[in-house]
């Protein structure tokens, strides 16, 4: 079974990576970009025995830093 | 208008970050993980004048390295 975890910085947390991307886009002549936020996507190939609670525990223990990051889990087929 | 760009490594490209995450999950006692691939998610807040072609150009010019990475664009409201 495949699962995807999307990790994003919480609102209000400074995002230097996103700022750098924004600045670089402007430098390349791409206007009309108001804001850029950078996040992570982690694709996991899991055994079918892994429950939603297991996946949530993985996110809390390792994949996301819940002090400054939100995470969203998307389970696939 | 919001748009999200998902950047993933192409199949066959080594993913040391994914390997490190996999190893760390096993070290923490999470079994049942067959494979982990790490990718990026970039959230853009765009002016309505930005077309799909503009967004594609941004991906090719900066957001993804198309030699080793695939990208997928998801436009929101």
Automatic annotation (TrEMBL), chains A, B:
Any one GO CC term of the record: cytoplasm
Record keywords, A-Z: ATP-binding, Cytoplasm, Ligase, Nucleotide-binding, Purine biosynthesis
InterPro entries: PurS, PurS-like_sf
UniProt KW Membrane keyword: no
Reported function: Part of the phosphoribosylformylglycinamidine synthase complex involved in the purines biosynthetic pathway. Catalyzes the ATP-dependent conversion of formylglycinamide ribonucleotide (FGAR) and glutamine to yield formylglycinamidine ribonucleotide (FGAM) and glutamate. The FGAM synthase complex is composed of three subunits. PurQ produces an ammonia molecule by converting glutamine to glutamate. PurL transfers the ammonia molecule to FGAR to form FGAM in an ATP-dependent manner.
Subunit record text: Part of the FGAM synthase complex composed of 1 PurL, 1 PurQ and 2 PurS subunits.
Protein name: Phosphoribosylformylglycinamidine synthase subunit PurS
Organism: Alterirhizorhabdus solaris
Gene (UniProt): purS
């Amino acid at each position: 079974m495949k699962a995807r975890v999307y990790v994003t910085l919480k609102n209000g947390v400074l995002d230097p990576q996103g700022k750098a991307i924004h600045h670089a886009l402007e430098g390349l002549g791409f206007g009309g970009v108001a804001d850029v936020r950078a996040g992570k996507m982690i694709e996991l190939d899991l055994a079918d025995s892994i429950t939603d609670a297991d996946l949530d525990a993985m996110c809390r223990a390792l994949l996301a830093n819940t002090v400054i990051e939100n995470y969203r889990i998307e389970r696939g087929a």
